């Protein structure tokens, strides 16, 4: 007869084996649809046994500048989404049933429309003779149309609109896990509401902030439709460069090298965000 401790270990081992078997179909699907194409991409980038494509992608001034511009855009979108999303998530975490239902409906409503349709809608809104400029001229607030399209402003507006829910939801989930008695205890000990928020609520919500920032940054680096249409060719992202190499030049090996460089940069920044967040959490504790 097995001892109680050994019996628990056997049961735990069987449970882990059962859970692994449940995950096997998903792992096989990921292996076929994700891991294998990525490996094929890596093999294509070193076609002919040379690293010339990587040298060009990583050292050529043009491609490095485009990569840095893509990271700049992704960083700006992430920062704007964080500033806009945190108050919304905080309000949702404190709202009643009706407020929560209406807020979630407004937040998730854009998911029912494709990104392409939403981007074309912004073309109508932001153009020189678009809805926004016409309304501002009719109200007498401006005389010359504002340059809201085919520049960085239009790209940021469109990308923030698409990606904002991906920042709100992780922060909201993180705020829900915070015991409401903790900030109340801080206020009961004499801390003003703003200090209780900065010293208690915000540090405890950093897992959601980290998840949202990492998700927004990674998604922003790979954006194609929104910057291509709203940027008007003046804001170039790496994804647009990769598409150009494939569609116009049929240079698949170099496009694969660019994709690999983008993937490595994305993973490195993702790891950095996680490390900075863990460091900030330790500092607050």
UniProtKB/TrEMBL annotation:
Domain ABC transmembrane type-1: 67-273
Residues passing through the membrane, by range: 73-92, 99-121, 155-175, 204-230, 250-273
Pfam family of the protein (one): BPD_transp_1
Membrane disposition: Multi-pass membrane protein
Entry GO terms, CC: plasma membrane
UniProt-annotated location(s): Cell membrane
Cited Gene3D superfamilies: MetI-like
InterPro entries membership: MetI-like, MetI-like_sf
Keyword Cell membrane: yes
Recorded family membership: Belongs to the binding-protein-dependent transport system permease family. CysTW subfamily.
Principal subcellular localization: membrane
SUPFAM superfamilies: MetI-like
Protein name: ABC transporter permease
The keyword Membrane is annotated on this UniProt entry: yes
Any one biological process term the GO annotation gives: transmembrane transport
Keywords: Cell membrane, Membrane, Transmembrane, Transmembrane helix, Transport
Domain of life, source organism: Bacteria
């Amino acid at each position: 007869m097995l001892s109680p401790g050994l019996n628990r270990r056997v049961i735990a081992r069987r449970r882990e084996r059962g859970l692994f078997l449940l995950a096997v179909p998903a792992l096989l699907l990921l292996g076929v649809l994700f891991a294998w194409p990525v490996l094929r991409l890596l093999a294509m980038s070193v076609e002919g046994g040379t690293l010339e494509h990587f040298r060009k992608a990583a050292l050529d001034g043009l491609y490095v500048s485009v990569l840095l511009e893509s990271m700049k855009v992704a960083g700006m979108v992430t920062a704007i989404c964080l500033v806009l999303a945190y108050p919304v998530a905080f309000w949702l975490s404190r709202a009643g049933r009706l407020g929560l239902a209406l807020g979630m409906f407004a937040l998730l409503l854009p998911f029912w429309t494709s990104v392409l349709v939403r981007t074309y809608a912004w073309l109508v809104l932001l153009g020189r003779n678009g809805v926004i400029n016409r309304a501002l001229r009719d109200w007498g607030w401006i005389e010359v149309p504002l340059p809201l399209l085919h520049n960085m402003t239009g790209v940021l507006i469109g990308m923030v609109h698409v990606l904002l829910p991906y920042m709100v939801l992780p922060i909201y989930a993180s705020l829900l896990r915070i015991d409401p008695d903790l900030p109340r205890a801080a206020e009961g000990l004499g801390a003003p509401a703003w200090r209780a928020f900065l010293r208690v609520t915000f540090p405890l919500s950093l897992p959601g902030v980290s998840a949202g920032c990492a998700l927004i940054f990674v998604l922003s680096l790979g954006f194609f439709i929104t910057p291509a249409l709203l940027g008007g060719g003046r804001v170039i992202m790496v994804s647009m460069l990769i598409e150009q190499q494939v569609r116009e030049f049929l240079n698949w090996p170099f496009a694969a090298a660019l994709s690999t460089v983008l993937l490595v940069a994305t993973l490195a920044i993702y790891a950095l965000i996680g490390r900075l967040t863990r460091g900030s959490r330790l500092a607050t504790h």
